[in-house]
Specification:
The chain is mainly beta and about 160 residues long. Helices cover about 15% and strands about 45% of the residues. It is built from two helices and eight strands; from the N terminus they run H-H-E-E-E-E-E-E-E-E. A hairpin with a 5-residue loop joins strand 4 and strand 5. The longest helix is centred in the N-terminal third of the chain and has 12 residues. The protein is globular, with a radius of gyration of 18 Å. The chain starts with a helix and ends with a strand.
Length: about 160
């Protein structure tokens, strides 16, 4: 599911250059032995279905993936983007990045502004320090207003995880 999600997010970030989309090899596995589907052969959801659903939402906030493990004291740069397939611009947008360190402390960063219709916006280059051993999570959130939405509000979320050793 991670490979599927990050691949779709990467294709969406290059929006029309050079790709105009993607397709799934199989929706469902052909038999009980498994396969490349997002549903098993009995049509039950596999974890990849949620990844596919999340990566295909009309508006997503994404950051580059962290390595599986990182060393104490290292600092990683994560490019943060918002991808919107809506035909209306997003206004009053706020993107927040919360870094959760292993000792329970957090660092919060926020950026604001408008996002154009049917666009990809580079929001920031976030520095993520690996301060102490243990889990490290970066959570991204977007809150914005779109005039043509049902309730006028758009939200999007994503997260990246690694282990500091």
């Amino acid at each position: 599911s991670d490979v599927l999600r990050t691949t779709i997010e990467t294709l969406r970030k290059v929006k029309y250059r050079p790709t105009g989309g993607f397709c799934a090899f199989y929706l469902a596995d052909p038999g009980p032995a498994g396969g490349f589907g997002v549903l098993d052969s009995d049509r039950r959801a596999k974890p990849a279905l949620q990844a596919l659903t999340d990566a295909c939402r009309p508006v997503i906030v994404v950051g580059e993936q962290l390595p599986a493990s990182v060393g104490v004291g290292e600092v990683y740069e994560i490019a943060i983007h918002v991808v919107s397939d809506l035909h209306e611009p997003l206004r009053d947008g706020v993107v927040s990045a919360t870094i959760h360190h292993a000792d329970g402390t957090t660092d919060v960063h926020r950026w604001g502004g408008a996002i154009g219709a049917d666009s990809v916006a580079h929001i920031a280059l976030l520095s993520v320090p690996a301060l102490q051993p243990g889990p490290l999570t970066v959570e991204l959130a977007l809150n914005a207003v779109v005039d043509n939405a049902k309730n006028g509000k758009i939200t999007a979320h994503s997260s990246m995880k690694t282990t500091v050793s």
